[in-house]
Structure formats: C-alpha cells, structure tokens
User: What shape does this take?
Amino acid sequence: MNPVINKRGDKFSIPGKYLLFALTIVSIALIVITLTTNLFSGVAGTVAGVFVVPFQKGISTAGSYVKDKAEYFADMSTLREENGVLRQQVEELKEENARLTQDKYELDNLRDLYELDKEYSSYSKTGARIIARDTGNWYSNFVIDKGTDDGLDIDMNIIAGGGLVGRITSIGPGWSKVTSVISDNISTSSMVLNTGDNLIVTGDLESYSEGVITFSKLQDDIDAVSIGDKVVTSNISDKYLPGILVGYITSIEADSNNLTKSGTLTPAVDFEHLDEVLVITSKKQVINSETPDD
Assistant: This one.
C-alpha cells in the first residue's frame, strides 16, 4: 500500500500530515526567498494594485456611505424633534392669534358702543349681550341677557353699531326679546334729518338680503331729499325716542299718486354681526299718535 497516496474508490487523497508538512516547507521557502531576495516585490505590488487597492477603496467607500447614512438619520431624528417643537409652537401661536383676534373684535365692538354711548349721551343706557337669535343670516329677532330684574321693560329702544337696532317686544326676569327694524312688516316712524320730512321705514328681510330696507310716504314736493341723506327716528314715533339714526337713503322714486315718494335705505347697523347692544332705559312717552310704530 502506498504510504503517501490513498485510493478510496475512484478518488485519491494525500494524508493530512504529509500535506501539512509540504505546506510548511513551501511557506519556509517563500519566507527565505522573500527575506533574501526581491523576487516577489514586483509580483506583490501587482497583486496589491489589482486586488488590495480596489478592495481598500471599496471598504473606504462603504465606510463613507455608512457614515453619511448615520449622519443623515441622526439629522432626520433631530429634524423630527425640531419639527415637533415647531408644530407645537405654531399651534400655540394660532391659539394666541385667535384669542387676540377675538379680543380685537370685542374691543372694536366696545369702542363702537362707547362712541355710540357718547353720541346719545342724553339717554340713560345699559349694556347687554345677545344670547340667542332666530334662525337665519341676520339678527332680525334675538334675545339679550337682561330683563325685568335689571330694570328693563317692553318698548325700550335698542341701539348698537351706528344707530337703531329695534325695541324690546317681550321680556322675562333675566331676558328680553328684541325685534329689529329690519324684520318683515315692522314700521318705524322716521324723518330725513336734513329736511325734517317724515316717512315710514318698513322692515323687509328679502330686501335686506341686498343690504337695504324700504321706506314710503315721503312728502318731498321740492325734491330736497337726496341719496345719502340720513334718516332718524321722528318726534311723532310712539315707540322710538327721537333722533336715533336709522340709516341712509340709497334710492328714491315717485309714487304713482305723484304725491309721495318711496325708496330704499341702508340701515346704520350691521345686522349680520351683533354681539353686544345698548338698551336705552328711558321710554318714549306718547299720549296719542297718528302714526304708530309696529
């Protein structure tokens, strides 16, 4: 039997101890040659150039990629945290802005009421807040948060914004219902401030959808009344105190009888935006009236 090569079936194998011995001899020989000569320097350089250097470049590229990705994810984590903080700040700013807007709105309303209070300083007044209203786009009928317990009474006049809103038509201990001058078929005895000519202002919600209400029975033989003239409550009104601004004339036309005129006026009050009002606590004292208000 051959001590070096063993035949196993169709395969030949070298015993491990002989293979190890041969590899040891070859390694020692290569070491000696490498130390004593420069035979493999060129070969080693070539191998390094072909295999090692590209491998090192690959490792370096992979390292750079991993580093960049790590920095990217770190930046993304930081950005997410910063984004969360900024979102919170934005929400806080929105809330603060909403509060400031509401404060400004209320301040503007109070400023308007203050100016109105000075304008009608001859009348005693108390402030009230609207707490309910009828369905619809406008404050044609609404409820305020004061009533008989606060000294209020039926037919007390309500003002806001630029002038007349309406009057109290029903009341309870802590509430009052107000019917405004724009409500359908509500008539208000009025006059043109510049000329003193009397007329009847009538509420009309359909007309108010275009920003106006109607007037009629204006006697103006000399055409003294013109567009833009102020209309105020008249002295002969049995429900309203005199001199409260109702609105401004926007159109005039002669009636078919050629004796009177009719037209439209823009109310002095914005009946789409009402929150606080002033109640005039004194009432009109009337013994008899030929032109009652509704």
